[in-house]
């Protein structure tokens, strides 16, 4: 240290401050250096995450919901396959807050090929400042620097102001960014890339960028633009990678450059409730099932209803300032909806127990404990003294008192733990939009767990599932995460005898369905793999049918419902202000032609259990199915 900085600690501190300020003002390096391993046969390149490009930054910029995605591009030039593992870890938490203490992922890179390793960070804050990134290649380990970005459970949304985070491509112009940020083209200030999220190389070749605490408090509503630092052709193919943003903005060239896998991820992000904007649009090829809302909007904007989300198309030459001002208001509505959801996750377990009851009694066996304490007080005191006096062994008090105390402690522990028995209980409340036309299922739900003893393997969900923990009883914990092809929540996510609840959103392909046959007497075959306790169907011709019970694999004739046929209209979803209201059957849209609503009698086939061998206490699962004209006779 002294050889590098011979000017003393004060000068070093001033120099460090100057470097920090310079990085904030002038931005982080825009290129991320690759690191060579195995004598240059293996190259690891961290793909930079988006950076803020706002002219007037709010202290505390960062994202608070959804998933942060860290990606590493790996190029194997050798003739041998190699397993590459990435692992972040920390020894302590920050300010006693809930933190993600360690995260890891692994990938096998075949000879003469490339691969991408991904760590998906749920909305739990990671570490701030440079921390070690351990890269293990086969059995050899290297260390590089890394900085976690400000993300997850930030308290700024409770201050009254709403922070809307917008992801834009690097093809969006400076003027368009300024309009999105401020809603005006007044004298433009120099863009000041925020430090959050940048993984640019630090001096000395280390991976990572500087990050700062997100606990500042902005005033009023604000729009923060995050510009992608990778070209659109390299955008992520995982929908979770977009969920931390309230809106994604691209232009016509981006739509041409997007790979099909990346657009599929964006489509799922939108259909799960996100917002998508295309500027300078010429003739974008949008999914056919996105419905033109036919609304009167300014500047020639066209709005599309995309199941639970919405997309806006603004043609080239339109009045940008008026149009984007309208979009800014809509973006804030989306941001407020996510803020409400994140605010609700700070409620205690009893709040969610009312939504998805686990059947847990929070009463302590006070009477039994009092009797037990009195008994041991007498045993360890008068009884012990009299007995040892009679035996003339009072010196034994030095070991009979501790032994009796230990025995009493174990008995009290056993009474408290086993008074209710060994429990492994789970409860689920979910709603699934099953689009049978495309073979996709979009599920939202609340999952609760209660265990007498914590599970050894933690929780497991797929990499297409967004998991947001309810943090009412999780303050000050350090959590663990592994993403080896799936999400494994490994440390402190569930603790003994403490209910744990999670908000779940999942978008994934699905081949299960209800099969309809409209030839002659209409029938339905249950291919969902679970019993249906109630089914309401609107046929493609508008006639209504119902059914009370349908076993898995069973084919049954449906009962017609009298009344007028349903007219032709699109399926229109409305965004719910809260996660709980979104899971109520009454929040589902009016049934249109070619749709059904099924109430399941059992677990949902669209959600992983999280933990195996759990006993279900409550299962309230609903499916809104879209099947169009499936099974209709040919005309």
Distance, first to last CA = 83 Å
The helicity comes to 10-25%
Rg is: 29 Å
Give the amount of beta strand, in percent.
25-35%
How many β strands by DSSP? Answer: 31
Oligomeric nature of the chains:
single chain
Structural class of the helices, strands and pairings? Answer: alpha+beta
Mean pLDDT: 81
* Strands in their spatial order, largest beta sheet: 20-23-18-17-31-30-26-27-29
Please give a quick description of this structure.
By secondary structure, this protein is α+β, with helices and mostly antiparallel strands. The protein has nine helices and 31 strands. The protein has helices spanning 9-26, 174-182, 252-257, 260-271, 320-344, 349-353, 366-390, 397-418, 579-582, and strands at 35-37, 42-47, 51-52, 68-76, 82-89, 99-109, 113-121, 130-137, 140-147, 163-168, 222-227, 247-251, 275-281, 291-292, 302-306, 309-315, 424-435, 440-451, 459-462, 465-469, 478-483, 486-491, 500-509, 514-517, 523-526, 532-538, 544-547, 555-557, 559-561, 595-600, 615-626.
